[in-house]
Amino acid sequence: MNTIEIMQQKLIRCVCFLVVFIQANAMQINAWANETVHPRLVVVISVDQFCADYLVRFQTNFSKNADESFCRSVLESGAWFPNCHHQHALTYTAPGHAGLLTGAYPNTHGVIGNEWFDRSTGETRYCVSDPSVKVVGVASEKSMSPRVLLVDTVGDMMKLATNGKAKVFGVAIKDRASILMTGHRADAAYWLEKNRWVTSTYYREDLPGYLRVLNDGDAIDQFRGKTWDLLLPKEKYFNQGDDNNEFENPPKGFTASFPHQLASVGEALPDEFGEQVLFSPFGNDYTLLAAREIIRNEELGADDIPDLLAINFSSNDYIGHAFGPMSYEVEDMTYRTDRQLADFAGHLDEAVGAGRWTLVITADHGVAPIPEIIAQHMQSKAEIPSPKRNPIGNLNDVQDLIEAAIRKDMAAVGNAEEDAARIVLKVEPNQVHLNHAHTRLEGAKVLQAQRIARDWLLSQRYVAAAATQDELQSGNGGALFEQLRLSFHSSRSGDVLFVYTPYSIPGSSSPNAKPRGTTHGSPWQYDTNVPLLILGNGVVAGRYVERVSPAQIAPTLSKLLGISPPAGCAVEALYPAIKIPPRF
């Protein structure tokens, strides 16, 4: 065999090898394409005001049947993080929702509260207000968009990674929840206003037909005349206090005790009836009805390009504020929420397909017990302050007292020029805003005024911590200081941030306001510790006890989807709990 023949045979062998190699790789690519290596639909449900404690305290009353109990399903085949905590101090609805799918905290994403004082206008602004757009679906003076959010979300990154082909939607009773979870590039965020589903011209100029059908048919009226009663025999409930509690704050038409009867046709004005729906499990039912319509009509999860649906159960928050976490109402709502989630997971199997979806459950914050109730359980000789509502008094009075303290101390250092303009522009439940243009605050004097305000606050028995803007920017301090730092945004926050002692809560400044109900917004365990449950595609089942944050949902889902995390993401993915698809 001559040299040419040898070379020809080698060439033939090389060509054959190359053909086999190409065919093998083509077969592997086809196998990956046919295999569900990532979820086709990711659903993130924030159960508004949901304490992690509920899953432990009430667990024995959850159904033993996983088809009826979402929590039971997670215990059997999902990932549960019982030690999940929000890391920022001021745990309000908007900051919590903004963090879930950005992976960032208020110091980065910029949403420091549900509302905050805006120095540029001298007015308080609502977190998602945007005068450049209009509400679509009802006649409204409101205007909402995600433009306040300073970073992008998982949904935004999905849009970028798929050249806009991924579908991203949000739905909630609350506008801020739906808008802030979905982000800037969402197809739409929907929320409830005047008992109607609405959106904003930021997303689209009209409401989709399937939501117009719900609105035009007054679909919410299906709950008229319904009764919310205890799901289980009363003796099985762990919250065994007085059901008819004087410190609870039920909506109009409800009493403080079970059963709660919703108005029948003609018995209440539409808005009053709508409020009753919101303050009952039927609010979640109505939200899930809209969510199912979005999945069906938008064909979410129907192809190989992954989609995202963000949902908020707002009714849990309304009920928690009104009745408190030690009430029969909150406990019963927990059992019903567990069953609603189980039913929705079953719907995902039917609508999207088993193995094609991933469902994440968490919360934007927890809640404080009603102060008057927790005070009854404390020993009278306890060293810690007894829980109190409006613990430092009317905030208008506090503003005057801090103003006087600053004027007195600033005069003592030689700045004697009198100026009728206020030095303290605004005192909010957790912030003090100073007038930087004031003649007494020229140059470094503003730092001195901040310290005077801080020291006045720290002298109050019910203030646990306070820090100036300068201190928060320096970044030196302990765990509580770090929580405050994560809640501080340099261009939106006040000059001094502060928090109350445990179990004490702010309230209305009105002297005629009734001292009822409760709230959240603190750095304490009951407000920060929330559930984190993951079920479905790509999940490694188990109970993970390490301390984690809901912000880690964003990079975790990004890894599952094979996309880059949002730009402002400041945390790591929950790697032990997920199967990462085989990609470079």
Ends apart, CA distance between termini = 45 Å
Strand fraction: 5-15%
The number of domains is: 2
* Shape, per Cα inertia axes: globular
- Beta strand count: 18
Class of the largest domain in CATH? Alpha Beta
**Helix fraction?**
25-40%
Going by CATH, the architecture of the largest domain would be: 3-Layer(aba) Sandwich
Number of helices: 19
Average pLDDT figure: 90
Summed up:
This protein is α/β, with parallel strands linked by helices and 584 residues long.
Q: If you had to describe this structure to a student in words, what would you say it looks like?
A:
- The chain has 19 helices and 18 strands.
- It has helices spanning 3-34, 52-57, 70-77, 93-100, 106-109, 154-161, 175-182, 209-216, 270-278, 282-298, 315-323, 328-351, 371-376, 395-412, 445-458, 469-474, 479-487, 525-528, 553-561; strands at 41-47, 79-80, 115-118, 123-126, 135-136, 168-172, 188-193, 196-200, 227-228, 260-261, 307-313, 357-362, 424-428, 431-434, 463-468, 496-500, 533-536, 542-543.
- The protein folds into two domains: 41-367 and 523-577, Alkaline Phosphatase, subunit A, CATH 3.40.720.10; 395-500, Gyrase A, domain 2.
- Residues 3-8 and 14-35 have low confidence and may be disordered.
- Strand 13 and strand 14 (431-434) form a beta hairpin.
- The strands form four sheets. It has a ten-stranded mixed beta sheet, sandwiched between helices.
- The chain is an alpha/beta fold.
